[in-house]
């Protein structure tokens, strides 16, 4: 059979017309897959720079915004020290700077930096516990500021206690914990003294004072700092940091974990060792060739799909400091996975590749 040129052209046009019709009717359309993958947003670390050290994070349920607060630092941008900077985000990934906790330093101590804040919602208000200390300070302490809104203004309520008053050397790094209507504060940092270590103490019902300083209890040895307690499936998990936090590219900071069946311990690592002994703890996160000194993380945040996330700071090895000389401790975000009763983060080092972002349904 001989097919002339015009008939062949009509045939070809008809075939393409049918293909287009089938495609438009989604008979073999893959666009649904594209839509699904478009909804799965990705991100890469760091999620904020140049600095947000010792991050603490909370969500304002009325607006859906997350607020992150960090240690006082000079970002090297000519604007001097930010007295505990405040960031805001809708998704834990995209952050913007919105201000500082204080315009002036509190007057209850003569000198020092404002370090390692811990934000919490208590009695409908935002409670920010913070450290007030110098390097090598013999009498650092922990203070409290309160605000009606997450971005402030914060009003200082003064000190909860100082090192000498509570008899715990290097009393910094506060972390609030509440259970069954009872409030506790955990705190403490590096040192070799006989009463050194991470301690807990009951707070008043309003969370604004310590009724009895003698009721403190010790949960970890003096080679820990930046403690955080997280309860899951009947266990209390103790997360904390060890090593040098702020030595630029030489920082040895890393995160370890242990667990207990009681809030007051004993907390045991994966090998069954009590973390009241030095040199214990199961490593959760350490540095690599890209980022060093990961540590001093937030409390665990759960997204709308039930996935747990952790924000922490780390130092990029080839961009270790800003022009002010401060360690460039950028803000990092990584997923926490639970298996056989223990948490893990990826391969145990800061995640560099693009990964799926947290999902929030509002």
How would you describe this protein?
Pfam families: Glyco_hydro_43. The record marks 173 as: Important for catalytic activity, responsible for pKa modulation of the active site Glu and correct orientation of both the proton donor and substrate. Belongs to the glycosyl hydrolase 43 family. Mean pLDDT is 91; it is low at 7-39. The chain is globular, with a radius of gyration of 25 Å. The protein folds into two domains: 1-39, no CATH class; 45-356, Glycosyl hydrolase domain, family 43 (Tachylectin-2, Chain A). With 362 residues, the chain is mainly β. Strands 20, 21, 22, 23 and 24 form a five-stranded antiparallel beta sheet that branches. The chain has helices spanning 5-24, 31-39, 163-166; strands at residues 42-43, 56-59, 66-69, 73-74, 81-82, 85-89, 95-100, 113-122, 125-133, 141-147, 155-162, 175-179, 182-187, 198-202, 217-220, 225-232, 235-242, 254-260, 282-285, 291-295, 301-302, 308-316, 329-339, 342-344, 355-356. It is built from three helices and 25 strands. The chain starts with a helix and ends in a 6-residue tail after the last strand. The longest helix has 20 residues, at 5-24.
